[in-house]
């Protein structure tokens, strides 16, 4: 399993707007692509001193499935124009990790 991790930052004033956009448009658009091997997305949010950080963690069966999502340059971030308008800054490149162990209690 591959975990695709991305960070985006917005102002406190734009945080709720971005989160709403992320849920209603960005994630819905990703789901609508019916990407083979894409199984999950998590959205994390935390306030910082002068901005709000968002992290998305997407799960894919393989790097080939990530490439089916964003193309051969699989580290390229996926940030639609409407999201770019409310983000202060964001990762241009996503990070990918192979899940090596998972334990639930």
UniProtKB/TrEMBL annotation:
InterPro entries: Dimeric_a/b-barrel. GO terms for molecular function: monooxygenase activity. It comes from the Bacteria. Keywords: Monooxygenase, Oxidoreductase. This is Antibiotic biosynthesis monooxygenase (ABM) superfamily enzyme. It comes from Aurantimonas endophytica.
